Amino acid sequence: MGSNEIESSGSEVVTIDVNVAKGLIQNGYVYLDVRTVEEFEKGHVDAEKIINIPYMFNTPEGRVKNPEFLKEVLSASNKEEHLIVGCQSGVRSLYATADLLAEGFKDVSNMGGGYLDWVKHDFPVKIPITNEKEL
């Protein structure tokens, strides 16, 4: 077992690189962004099917796991859905993918390198327009 694999109740997390992820996203896979809403709103992967469900929240005490994560994913998709899970650098998405596989999701892949790697490859991103009129 390699250093970047996590065993999760018999299902091994598959980590794919951003090039593979981009192809799958363009072919109808759902991109599940598990970063915080604040991170998501600063910019995210440009995907036709994208869901933002934070795996962790920032609190004054530091990051805490979102206790409703699995429930929220289940309400936004189903266990048969083809999901690519991504975060900022690939750590949270690894744990989120393991949790989803343990929950019985059939086709979930972790996007290695996360949003930072996606941006580094100059792949399409969406950055919401803010109301600030700064030059």
Task: Describe this structure as you would to a colleague.
It holds the Pfam family Rhodanese. Residues 25-127 form the Rhodanese domain. This is Rhodanese domain-containing protein. This protein is an alpha/beta fold and 135 residues long. The protein has a single domain (9-126), classed as Rhodanese-like domain (Oxidized Rhodanese, domain 1), CATH 3.40.250. Helices cover 30% and strands 27% of the residues. It has a five-stranded parallel sheet. Strand 7 and strand 8 form a beta hairpin. The longest helix has 11 residues, at 92-102. It is globular, with a radius of gyration of 15 Å. The model is unreliable at 1-9 (pLDDT under 50).
Key features of this structure:
135 residues; alpha/beta; two-stranded antiparallel sheet; catalytic activity; single chain; Rhodanese-like_dom; 5 helices; Rhodanese domain-containing protein; Oxidized Rhodanese, domain 1; Rhodanese-like_dom_sf; disordered N terminus
Element layout with pairings:
Blueprint: E1 7-8, E2 11-12, E3 14-16, H1 18-26, E4 30-33, H2 37-42, E5 44-45, E6 50-52, E7 56-59, E8 62-65, H3 69-76, E9 82-86, H4 92-102, E10 107-111, H5 114-120, E11 125-126
Parallel strand pairs: 3-10, 4-6, 4-9, 9-10
Antiparallel strand pairs: 1-2, 5-11, 7-8
InterPro entries: Rhodanese-like_dom, Rhodanese-like_dom_sf, STR17/STR18/HARC1-like
GO molecular function: catalytic activity
Organism: Lupinus angustifolius
